[in-house]
Design brief:
seven-stranded antiparallel sheet, globular, two-stranded antiparallel sheet, 3 domains, single chain
């Protein structure tokens, strides 16, 4: 399959979409999906070359006080994505997001467009091994989990402070949401909760029935029942 041709966002030259560097101005190139039509475009482009949609950009700020959990010793850089403030590692491309900000990104399309077009630093080789990362704020080990239980994007979370997403994971989360995956996950969760509730109700009914059987088989209870029957019998004979 041949690569499409796009325009370099720096000099406007026609460049293949699979190029990592412009052959004319030497600018570093990276492709992302358009938030409107999902067509390929270069990071830094102001408009999608396919549908013409305007692209919201992310702007960088001063260094953050936190260190990267993936690259110890490297400080995170504050990045404004629309109205949201994230912290990015300029070495590995990972992103630290406060929990409330992450929830807003998951719910707000405009913030998703801004976050999806964050310009990532050049990729660096990393060892792909399971490891638990420390929270950049409290240094406790974070929990790893599959976002929405079915996205395939494994993220690290500190329940008190925020969420760590490795390079390009934020874009993958957004693509999962845009494809309807989050809605399906919520529907499945509701179904599972209903099934669990039904199972608990059935178990409670069975438990109550067993208690009734146990009571009926108790000698004292049987004696009381027989005594009551006898009393009724004597009253009928009088």
């Amino acid at each position: 399959m041949e690569a499409d041709t796009l325009h370099c966002p720096s000099c406007g030259a026609v460049v293949s979409s699979d190029s990592t560097q412009c052959q004319y101005c030497q600018a570093q190139l990276q492709t992302v999906a358009c938030p409107s039509c999902f067509g390929l475009m270069f990071v830094g482009s102001k408009f999608c070359p396919h549908c013409g949609a305007a692209v919201a950009a992310a702007t960088t700020g001063p260094a953050a006080p936190h260190s990267c959990p993936r690259c110890p010793g490297n400080h995170l850089q504050r990045v404004s994505v629309g109205e949201a403030l994230l912290e990015e590692c300029l070495h590995c491309g990972g992103v630290w997001v406060a929990i409330d900000v992450f929830n807003k990104i998951c719910a707000d399309r405009q913030m998703q467009e801004s976050a999806e077009h964050m310009q990532l630093p050049p990729a660096i080789p990393q060892e792909h091994k399971l490891m638990y990362l420390q929270c950049p704020q409290c240094a406790t080990l974070m929990n790893r989990y599959n976002f929405a239980n079915r996205s395939g994007v494994v993220i690290d979370k500190c329940a008190e402070h925020g969420i760590w997403l490795d390079r390009d994971d934020l874009r993958r989360v957004i693509e999962f949401i845009r494809s309807g995956g989050l809605a399906v996950a919520r529907e499945n969760e509701i179904k599972e909760l209903k099934q669990q509730r039904s199972a608990l109700e059935s178990a409670q009914i069975t438990s109550n029935a067993n208690v009734g059987l146990d009571a009926e088989s108790d000698p004292y209870v049987i004696g009381q029942i027989l005594s009551g029957i006898a009393s009724i019998g004597w009253s009928l004979l009088k």
